[in-house]
Amino acid sequence: MKLLFERSVKGRRTYLMPKSTFPKAELPDHLKRKEAPRLPEMSEVAVARHYKELSKQAFGVTSGFYPLGSCTMKYNPRVNEAAAGLPGFTGVHPLQPKDTVKGCQEVIIQAEKLLCEITGMDNMSFQPAAGAHGEFLGLLLIKKYHEERGDFKRKRIIVPDSAHGTNPASAAMVGFTVTHVPSDSEGQVDLEALKAVLDDTVAGLMLTNPNTVGIFDRNILEITRLVHDAGGLNYYDGANLNAIMGWVRPGDMGFDVVHLNLHKTFSTPHGGGGPGSGPVGCKKILSPYLPASKLGDEEKEKSLGQVRSFYGNFLVVVRALTYILTLGKEGLPQASGMAVLNANYLMQKLKDVYPMAYDRLCMHEFVMTLEDIKKKTGVSALDVAKGLLDYGMHPPTMYFPLIVHEALMVEPTETENRETLDEAAEAFMAIYQKIQEDPESLHLSPATTPISRPDEVNAARNPVVRYSFDKQ
Ligand SMILES: *Cc1c(COP(=O)(O)O)cnc(C)c1O
Predict the structure, then answer these.
(1) Average confidence (pLDDT) over 446-459
(2) Mutation choice for ligand 1 from 215, 237, 262, CB with most ligand atoms inside 8 A
(3) pLDDT in tens, 174-196
(4) Which end of the chain is more exposed for a tag (fewer CB within 10 A), N or C?
(5) Domain that holds residue 363
(6) What is the pTM of this model?
């Protein structure tokens, strides 16, 4: 596809302005350009077509099925955008006097109340701008808690081997060392291994439940009790609350601090680097250290202080509140119930031909392993993922979590209907047939997309993100 610069024709314009009747203002010489800017010159319709064409090259959640595991790429109701676009929210300035932004204050007060109710926490700060940022703040709270008690020897955070990569990274950023505990054959934390690493140098445990293989750890109360008994605190990575919201609460599972990804579960579009929000909720014992985030609030005496400018990404909170209020107390558990049902439905349709890493009831996502298929046929998880593109669906997450070999991780989400899930199952089956009959063809897929297989390593190491006029 040609770029705007390559389509440019000298003299083309998108507008017609009346001749100015004002005298020409002269700029001082040192402020003048030496040469005219090399902007593309095009007609309006050509620009409109260019961007339309460009949008067709990308795959979004409105293009088709987008079952990206661990990251919850779900369809976000448009009413949230309408609420976040209200001038009363978009037109405020963070330095406005407190009593002129009462409506915005009310949004944060309501969101804190409802999200604390959903998570079983007592207080929440909306400052962190993303999940990993929330982890960073949550772990600082744990560190501060121990230090305030004069307990300086607690330097370790326990992280299961199935954890999201940001967990050990955040622990290291806060200055903790990371102790990994293995998972058992069911994908749960190995209790004996956990007991073996618990002592008075443990600051806490970081856990996702359901974890990143889509399994709900049945021993959760035992796990959090063991950590508490050893004097540690429990951190809940709530980036994906999509399987449990309205059913169980991290606070009731024994967790002391949690972050949420409003840009996953609570309906802000994510991906592409857009603004996110990773609020951190905690139990009362940690509340004194939480940064203020209600507009105009003073920092409390023991607060860790600001972790981000102003009040975080406020409009993301508006979307989350709209989502929660429109679904209500009945709708939230219904949404997570559907997410779990959809994942299990698709898993059941596939599991006879695609081996599942953990063959038991899954939560909002499931993981298959193509290790055997690859050994026998040479077709890898990557080949299957690429093949799915030719059936009009976005590939699931590949090669994650790392503890499963040749992994494909599928999260259908609650918004997909049965027909879409059936079509997805058919696509998987058609690919399975190709694996048997013509495995070679899958190494060449996709065949129907604008680009087939980019050189991903080269694209990551030597990205070309700027147009070079020298090429002309
Ligand atoms: C996405 C995710 C994160 C990180 O969230 P970001 O907003 O990308 O920083 C952390 N943990 C889990 C389980 C996640 O799925």
Answers:
(1) 92
(2) 237
(3) 999 999 999 998 889 999 999 99
(4) C
(5) 330-454
(6) 0.91
